[in-house]
Design brief:
- The chain has 12 helices and 11 strands.
- Helix 3 packs parallel to helix 5 and helix 6 crosses helix 8.
- The longest helix has 17 residues.
- The chain has a 7-stranded parallel sheet, with helices on both faces. Strands 7-9 form a two-stranded parallel sheet.
- It is of the alpha/beta class.
- Strand 4, helix 3 and strand 5 form a beta-alpha-beta unit.
- It has 2 domains: about 190 residues, NAD(P)-binding Rossmann-like Domain (Rossmann fold), CATH 3.40.50.720; about 110 residues, UDP-galactose 4-epimerase, domain 1 (Alpha-Beta Complex).
- The structure holds NADP nicotinamide-adenine-dinucleotide phosphate (NAP).
- NADP nicotinamide-adenine-dinucleotide phosphate binds next to helix 1 and strand 7.
Amino acid sequence: MSRALIIGGTRFIGRHLVEELLDAQYDVTLLNRGRHENPFADNERVSHITGDRTSGATLANAAEEVDPDIVVDCVAYYPGEVRMATKAFSGVGAYVFISSGSSYGPNHIPKREDETPLELCTEEQAVDDSSDTYGARKAEGDRAIFEAAEKGVNAMAIRPTIVYGPHDYTGRFHYWVRQVKNHDTVVVPGDGTNIHHIVSVQNVVRGIRTIAENGDAGEIYNVGDRRVLTLGDLVETVADVLDSDVNIVTASERELASEGIEITDFPLYNPNPHILSTEKLRSIGWEPFGHREAFAEAVAWDAQSAEKPGPDRDAVERVLESLST
Ligand SMILES: NC(=O)c1ccc[n+]([C@@H]2O[C@H](COP(=O)([O-])OP(=O)(O)OC[C@H]3O[C@@H](n4cnc5c(N)ncnc54)[C@H](OP(=O)(O)O)[C@@H]3O)[C@@H](O)[C@H]2O)c1
């Protein structure tokens, strides 16, 4: 039996990771502030430490109390947090930081771990709390992984693209589920061929376990679904899972702007193709989960509690009206 410590663990990715690790016979300890309900409160194989990860002493105490074989860091949004964690957990079998596909700078197609340059990060950006600097901060966290590995720490990271699945509180994937469920005609921005690679949460947690068990120090691994879908294909697949007919109408940036909608208001729309190569993760034994099955699980989840992003519905109706005249 191995021991896993998860920093976070009660919302979305971390929650699925607990299940993945329990299935693989790990005993799991969660370290979080206790502000979100703990879905594993009644599970005797899941322990809980209440604490804030921004405190070095809290991390050091958790390292001593749990003596984990692996540590997965779900809530490092600042490079300083990654540095603090790689110090506190310098002796563990594996420390895995959840980074992001947003770490990459240029829009190479696909984005490859050891070729595509990362975002730069200034000292100001490293401590900035706006979403604009998210990618830069994750990239600097990746560089903290490289530095830790040079000092002998078995530190690694995973770079997921946008994640979907049950308990996805961002509601980005579910925007499209709602459109297909509630409307005969669905407006897709652009011409339907735009691509923002997405990844099922099942693929992310399988990836994290694969990295913790087989990854090499200082290495970072992308994760995305093996099959990359255009936004139009994604909507068709959701409709297929729901066994429903969908009529897709595409709308250009100008047609949307005429009704006050910015094309990027649509979740999962990206004007530039965003595709992560997944070969490196595959080469260390990652077994991908099929997107059709993952869509079925995501669609079946009751997303009432999730955020509801997306353009104003009345404005979308007006676009449809103007396109039909
Ligand atoms: N969703 C995506 O599309 C996507 C894509 C790429 C990367 N990521 C990365 O995935 C990670 C987030 O995953 P998730 O939210 O699904 O993880 P999660 O582990 O399921 O949930 C977040 C956890 O962090 C805890 N937490 C928050 N602030 C904390 C703090 N200061 N100290 C201790 N615990 C704290 C929360 O509990 P309490 O509030 O009770 O403390 C909760 O347990 C992030 O690193 C994000 O950058 C996500």
